[in-house]
Design goal:
Blueprint (H helix, E strand, L loop, with lengths): L2 H12 L8 H14 L1 H13 L18 E5 L2 E4 L4 E4 L14 H14 L8 H13 L5 E5 L2 H16 L3 E5 L35 E4 L4 H10 L6 E6 L4 H4 L1 E2 L4 H12 L2 E5 L11 H5 L6 E4 L11 E5 L1 H4 L20 H16 L2 H21 L7 E5 L2 E5 L13 H21 L2 E2 L5 E3 L6 H17 L4
Parallel strand pairs: 3-14, 5-6, 5-7, 7-9, 9-10
Antiparallel strand pairs: 1-2, 2-3, 4-11, 10-11, 12-13, 13-15
Helix pairs in contact: 2-14, 4-12, 5-12, 7-9, 13-15
The structure holds pyridoxal-5'-phosphate.
Length: 469
């Protein structure tokens, strides 16, 4: 779906109130959710006492309570109560081969059995994993491994400042670049500033320049205005748009950022934590044919195995990481590049290429997008729609991500619309469909026609609960 169509359909949804499920029907669905998930509830009740909120990841599916998962295989996951789900969370993007991919697991088990987890020194797998990334990503000549996407984003900012000698980092509103002090600014919804930044001193944002997505004038002004205030060291972008494309970008947006970076001697940094090896084996940089100076990678490069992150890019830029004392950009991480993570990265990327995994996941995503849009046409009163960037799908039901914060009643709108979207997720989960944050679906190479039919069936059921206008 083209950018303009996404915008106009989204605005159409926002021009009307959300479509809640009537309370009596919703109560029955909540009841079903609770009845199916007794063991999960037990675990949650105990966890609440020793883990704040009872759950580690702030963004997990957690309404009315989080479900504890037992295992995953192919496109399915099972919870501790034995319920099975068609999974489109895919661990938050990294799973493309499918859960529990045997050939990959076997390699890792072999390493654990024969070599042990880590020595704290380097291993050959580090070289192999770096080479595999370089082989696929056109903008990457050197790689430095870290332990998470958050760390890799922090490193990219530091490298950009060290390389350019400049100070400011332009961050695009609504984008997510991990939870480090400088980056928890205008996340999720553009213009929210420090709304979600409790515990972070305001000074941390002194050199972060917040630019709303697709605002070409403000973008250019940000470069101009900061020229004599330390200059722009880099622009950090999610190349398909904030929140992995929930805020899609104008077709010329990345091109314009590239031009302005060249004009002002700033670095273009692509955060490919989700897009790398998912929209294409060459990442969004290949998908759009735009070369960033730095690329941030995360969870995807170890395919769900732990300790996963990397900052990568042009050789001259990356070289600031290996200068002598007093020159070098400092980075750490005891378990960074440990053999298990590196072997997982090396073999996962190899298996993905050998199995044509990204293409297969994309074909399925295209098919499901089309089928869901056809289903939604049967309820045109709702205006729901789906779009995808390769194996990343977004479904828009209440458009809560897209509320303009400057509009009157904006906060109420966000809360109400998010609540309705959460209620839809309770229904889909209670019937065996697992998605991300009520807006997103990631596909893997193993999703098949059976998955597609079951997915449509659950959506059809959800639509049947919403009264006709
Ligand atoms: C675009 C993007 N950047 C950075 C991160 C942070 O990665 P991590 O959760 O590994 O710290 C995420 C996490 O979802 C992400 O989506």
């Amino acid at each position: 779906m083209e950018y303009q169509e996404i915008l106009s359909r989204r605005n159409e949804i926002l021009s009307r109130p959300a479509h809640p499920i009537p309370e009596n029907k919703l109560a029955a669905e909540r009841d079903l959710y609770t009845k199916r998930n007794k063991r999960s509830l037990e675990i949650f009740e105990k966890a609440k006492g020793i883990i704040p909120g009872g759950v580690e990841h702030n963004l997990s599916q957690n309404k009315p309570f989080p479900l504890a998962m037992d295992r995953g295989k192919g496109y399915r996951v099972w919870d501790v109560d034995g319920n099975v789900y068609i999974d489109y969370l895919m661990c938050g993007a990294p799973i493309i081969l499918g859960h529990g991919f045997e050939p990959l697991n076997e390699k890792i088990i072999e390493i654990i059995r024969e070599k042990g987890p880590a020595t704290g020194l380097t291993s050959e797998y580090e070289l192999l994993a770096a080479q595999e990334i370089i082989n696929h990503m056109p903008g990457v000549e050197m790689v430095r491994f870290l332990q998470s996407g958050t760390e890799a984003d922090m490193a990219a900012i530091r490298i950009a400042r060290a390389f350019t000698g400049k100070l400011k980092i332009i961050k695009i509103g609504g984008s997510y670049h991990g939870w480090s002090d400088q980056m928890v600014y205008s996340i999720h919804v553009p213009h929210t500033g420090a709304l979600e930044s409790k515990g972070i001193p305001q000074e941390c944002f002194a050199h972060i320049v917040d630019v709303a997505p697709n605002d070409f004038d403000v973008l250019e002004k940000a470069f101009k205005d900061n020229k004599d205030k330390g200059g722009v060291a880099g622009v950090l972008v999610e190349p398909i748009g904030g929140e992995s494309g929930a805020h899609p970008v104008h077709p010329d947006w990345n091109k314009r950022i590239r031009e302005l970076c060249d004009q002002y001697g700033s670095l273009m940094i692509f955060d490919e934590v989700v897009t790398g090896f998912r929209v294409d084996m060459g990442g969004a940089q290949k998908y759009y044919n735009i070369m960033p100076d730095l690329t941030v990678l995360g969870k995807i490069i170890t395919h769900g195995y732990p300790s996963s992150g990397a900052v990568a890019g042009r050789k001259d830029v990356m070289s600031v990481c290996h200068g002598g004392l007093g020159e070098k950009v400092f980075m750490g991480g005891t378990l960074a590049a440990n053999p298990i993570s590196m072997a997982a990265g090396y073999y996962a990327l190899k298996f993905m290429a050998e199995n044509d995994a990204v293409r297969k996941a994309t074909i399925y995503a295209n098919k499901l997008t089309k089928a869901l849009n056809k289903l939604f046409e049967t309820r045109s009163d709702l205006g729901f729609f789906v779009y995808n960037f390769g194996a990343i799908m977004h479904y828009v039901t209440t458009a809560f991500f897209s509320i303009d914060l400057r509009a009157p009643d904006a906060f109420n709108q966000i809360i109400t619309r998010q609540q309705v979207a959460n209620d839809y997720s309770v229904v889909t989960m209670a019937h065996g469909l697992c998605t991300l944050a009520g807006t997103r679906m990631y596909t893997c190479m193993q999703h098949d026609d059976e998955a597609l039919h079951k997915t449509l069936e659950i959506w059809e059921y959800l639509l049947s609960l919403i009264p006709k206008n």
